[in-house]
Write a structure and sequence with these properties.
single chain, alpha/beta, Rossmann fold, globular, binds NADP nicotinamide-adenine-dinucleotide phosphate
Length: about 240
């Protein structure tokens, strides 16, 4: 069986953690998850056993000057490039438009848009034909969806990520690499409970991770450049 390499950002908690666990518990995958809060101590850094081959890479993806180190570490772990990159890491400041600071706006754009943009650019040379890039956006960034107060910077950054998806789908088509975007509705994670305390989401991280896993592995044979709304709660 040919091993498939999977790269997931924001794998330390929430949806990314659930997705990382699904791939690392399934046979036939090497999975590398990136997050700032992972330790880079050798013992916890990676697990290599017969059925389990995963790397938790502690790295701040906004540290663009260190991307050569990041790419070297990923290339050392994967025998070949990733067949699936899931740009899942995200940041949400819940803040009314009139209170949102320039720093909050810049950080939101950096994590939700600039990181996927430059990570894709650096990972691309490792990716082969028939690979898939999945950008994780939000219903807030889906044109025409119901909008919620306090999410202007966040939703604008996710809308931009959706349009970036369409642009890259076109530009990467000659390389045989597909790029699609998932606009998630509410999922019960730390990000959601911090922004909306007490709100009960209809979907768990594990349920959303199962969908993303299947979509990431299978949909790109028939889909490229699509922005998919995924919501039980919006509108
Ligand atoms: N939960 C929802 O209802 C919902 C709805 C729509 C869309 N989404 C989107 O789904 C994705 C996952 O959301 P979630 O709810 O699981 O969020 P979460 O619980 O807040 O997790 C965010 C992940 O991103 C990582 N991260 C943030 N900044 C990073 C950086 N600079 N470098 C590396 N990793 C970074 C965090 O790890 P560290 O802190 O360890 O770095 C964490 O693992 C996000 O893109 C979010 O916008 C979520």
């Amino acid at each position: 069986m040919e091993i498939k390499n999977i790269l997931i950002t924001g794998a330390s908690r929430g949806i990314g953690q659930a997705l990382f666990e699904k791939f690392s518990n399934a046979e036939g995958y090497f999975v590398c998850g990136i997050a700032r809060s992972f330790s880079n101590e050798p013992d916890t850094f990676s697990e290599k056993t017969e059925n389990r081959n995963c790397l938790r890479l502690g790295f701040d993806l906004s540290d663009f000057s260190e991307y050569p180190f990041l790419i070297k570490t990923i290339s050392d772990f994967f025998p070949k490039g990733p067949i699936l990159l899931v740009n899942n890491a995200g940041l949400l400041y819940y803040s009314a438009f009139e209170n949102t600071t320039e720093d909050q706006f810049d950080e939101t754009m950096k994590v939700n848009l600039k990181i996927p943009y430059f990570l894709i650019k650096k990972v691309l040379p490792l990716m082969d034909k028939n690979s898939h890039i999945v950008n994780v956006s939000s219903m807030g960034g889906f044109q025409g969806s119901q909008k919620y107060a306090g999410l202007s910077a966040y939703s604008a950054s996710k809308g931009a990520l959706a349009i970036l998806t369409e642009c890259l789908a076109l530009e990467l088509k000659p390389k045989g690499i597909s790029v699609n975007c998932l606009c998630l509705g509410a999922v019960q994670t730390e990000m959601l409970t911090t922004a909306f305390p007490g709100y009960k989401a209809p979907v768990t991280p594990a349920e959303m991770a199962s969908f993303i896993m299947d979509f990431g592995l299978n949909s790109h044979t028939v889909l490229n450049g699509v922005i998919v709304p995924l919501s039980l709660s919006n509108p």
